[in-house]
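Blackboard transcription, Thursday session:
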Amino acid sequence: MAVGRVDMDAWLAASRLVVCVGAGGVGKTTTAATLALCGALRGRKALVLTIDPARRLANSLGLKEFGNEETRIDLSPLAPEGEGELWAMMLDSRSTFDALIAKIASDPAARDRILGNHVYRHMADTFAGSQDYMATETLYDLVTSGKYDLLVLDTPPVKNALDFLESPGRLINFLDERVLRWFLHPSDSSPVLSRRLMFGTSAVVYRLLAYVFGKDFLDDLTTFFQDFQGLYGGFVERHQAVVDLFRDPATSFVTICAPNESSLDVAVFFQEELARRELPRGGMVVNQVHRCEGEEHDATAVLGALAEARGEDLPPSTVASVLARLGMAHRRLHALRVAEQALTKRVREAARGGGFFQEIPRIEGNVHDLAALATVGEALFTPAERL
Amino acid sequence: MADRPAPADPLKSLLDARLVLVTGKGGTGKTTFSAALAVLAAATGKRTLLVEVDSQRPAFTPIFGKEPEFAPSRLKDGLDFCNLRWMDALMAFLTSLVPSRRVVNLILGNRMVSRFLDFTPGSQEIVVLSALAEQVPKYDLVVADLPASGHAFSLLDVTRSALGLFRSGPVRNRAEELRALLLSDTTRAALTALPEEMVVNETIETGDKLRQYELIGHRPLVFLNRATLPTLVAEERELVRRLAEGPLDPLQAEFVRAGRWEDELEQGTALSAGRLTEALGYEPIMIPPAPAGGSPKQIVESVAAHLGRQVGVTRRELQWR
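(Written on the board underneath:)
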């Protein structure tokens, strides 16, 4: 199955954008932060961008929180002489959206009308895909700014997989000129069309939408479209640039999972989706893998003499109870390792041809400082299996 | 509403509710807990519905060996399950407003409408929540396995934000009804968590947000999965620590690592439980880990059996298939 190994350093050196995908709770944010850190430690100017509103990235970088601004992380404790830089940013979709409108609006009056619009205000807050959409927008800005030579994107743990790739399309679809025309001027498209619009299906549909969602809402929406129509061209252009970016050979999608059935299922699904969409598959990372190779569980045979020697000043029952406990713990850990191996074997087969396969052993304690991330990084950058 | 006291018997308060909304950080065992709670409720004689919310890949399938459909289907006596897919929910929603099937199909077939619904903030959420609300009067208890906490929050928050966006019409009315349902005395939220620092952070944050935005009438109950209580006494832990200081051969190191791993989990449980108690004002409900390598079905059985023991239901009564 596995032919040769993957040199992870060479892989990272060839990547300018790494997109981390996977189920929730599998250490996706930690992996994203680790990749950016490792890039910085190799002399690059790296930025990790998270869409995740739950301050996980800040936590894993040892910070309390940070916001919508690019924040530089001090690397001097790890690499006092290093040339590289590590930056982090958490996306706040509302302020990003506002900034975007300001950027592409034709004049200040148009900008203020949109920012003040009832529909816009709710859309920016609650539009299901707006966070994902804004992530791609921000990504576009970061890429075109040329400030960074490595970008790592941490995506939200959505079950509906790669929705975030479609959300720009979704927004663009809706703002497409025909839709705008349909809402704005149902009568001036063409003589034939307008009659159909006034008396045919479209008229029925329009009246029904007005009934279901309320006439007020449709009026608000029309106002919104009037203000928005000039912005359409800018959106289309940027969307196309983002689509191109995701298909660029220097972009790499990494699927992150943990050694449990549900997250591995999700990982297989991601691998299939990436392949189907012809997006560049970098590889797969399995986090928090337990290591336990010994088949022997008799702690007295393995550790008895040592425990006697080190515990001679402790109460006599202590040595016996600790040995019994270590034996049981070792047996349980071994059983867990065997179960995990059976699970990952299945995934490796399903993900064949999808780049590298790297297992990261679980490390003791919580990962919430740069030193711990660097430890994860060492494991991540050992030669990996090839899928 | 935040001042209501914690229930004396938290598990029983869920079983006595009409609607239980289950969420939590990804990977904390939401689906397992939802399934176990529903199986247990059915065993106590309640007509129970287990709901998956708009899932493209239903997580209930590997547990129950069959796929949930939009219409509830029978798993065993007193227990049904379903998956509220958004397109089906939309069809049901429109059918309830527009009597003519022909007109409903006309609307659904219209390209502008699908784009409109894709775009209009909250329309999908309102429709899916409506389908959930429709089921509540038909059962004694409905257990809903919601998406992970961030997304579950936006889903529930729609009942509030829609009131600002839609000023009249059936969608607004529906949003008002949904808000009343969420605030009702018989609706409860359960959060699943794990004894890990970041999971605990997110659980506390979700609890705070639900309270701050007044989305749910009752405080959410927290279920701490994979909870193991400390078993090593101080001298034993000291000996393990001394052993870890080495030098050790690889096999010896593995034994010590195994022991420290279990001790870390146990200490983590005590620490997490303490932090959750302090932040929420009541103790989380502990659920021990299921045996390693179990199938999704076996893991649900293990959790259901644990919950069952607390309300006097035996493992045999919890069987299905």
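Lecturer's comment: Confidence is low (pLDDT under 50) at residues 187-196 of chain A.
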